Amino acid sequence: MRFTGARLLGVGLAAGLSAVTIALWTTGRLALYINPESTWFAVSMATIGLVGCAVSFALPRGAEDDHGHDHGEADDHAGHGHDHARHAGHGHDERRSVWATAATVTGGVLATGVVAAIVLTPPATLSAEIAMQRDTGTPPLFQGADTVALAATGDTASFGVGEWASVFATATNPEAFDGDQVTLTGFVTPGGDGFSLTRLVITHCVIDAQPASVAVASSDTYETGKWVTVTGTIRDDGGRLAIHATSIETVAEPKDPYEY
């Protein structure tokens, strides 16, 4: 039972995580968890892990405990003088063994629970509620001054909500962007005289996802979390940039709901 449990906590859990990673990749849903640029690394490591787990089953159970410590008769004679010390420390070793067993069981239960949750929970995107919880009101950290400089040249064809959120939050010359035409897709969150158009921006994985929002001036109201495509003109409203919408179309959640 001890050897079987060790296999479950080691090889079994590693194989489960590797298999889930590969399954998500083959079904096109791995991007719900990590930046697509990291897919090759995650899938490669999962494949190596799965192969390693399969190979490890060629070892007989308990082989990892066979250290081959057969030092011969000389070691037996040399150890006679230490018998008393070993007996004195026997109680301490037992207590340490109990604590080690308890720690192993606790860690095993937690690890098994985490893997079980990953295997059994259907892949899903982070919600609008999580985006609002993570919104600290500070400028986005995923863009820098180079984004604002690029926007000032008018080369904004590839800009998403993340890039424009950085421009809106940090531009020192908002009048330079007055009149720019944009078409952006995101989900609705509360904010301003209208609503905020929001996307979650991932650097590496969903753990570091940050919300990016731009203000949309509109008299229409939309349900929080509703995905929409906004077409309009950026206006400098007294030093505060906002998109004045000319059309707002409700859309289905994109297959890849994040920006990177």
Short descriptors:
260 residues; alpha+beta; OB fold (Dihydrolipoamide Acetyltransferase, E2P); 2 domains; five-stranded mixed β-barrel; 8 helices; 18% strand
Compute the average pLDDT.
Answer: 76
Nearest-angstrom radius of gyration?
A: 28 Å
Secondary-structure element series: HHHHHHHHEEEEE
Strand order of the largest sheet: 1-2-3-5-4
In helices, the fraction of residues equals: 40-55%
Provide an overview of this structure.
With 260 residues, the protein is of the alpha+beta class. The chain folds into two domains: 2-65 and 74-120, no CATH class; 129-250, OB fold (Dihydrolipoamide Acetyltransferase, E2P), CATH 2.40.50. The protein has eight helices and five strands. The protein has helices at 2-26, 39-56, 72-79, 83-88, 90-120, 128-134, 145-152, 161-170; strands spanning 181-189, 194-201, 210-217, 227-237, 240-250. It has a five-stranded mixed beta barrel with strand order 1-2-3-5-4. Helix 1 packs antiparallel against helix 2. The protein is elongated and about 75 Å long. The two termini are 46 Å apart.
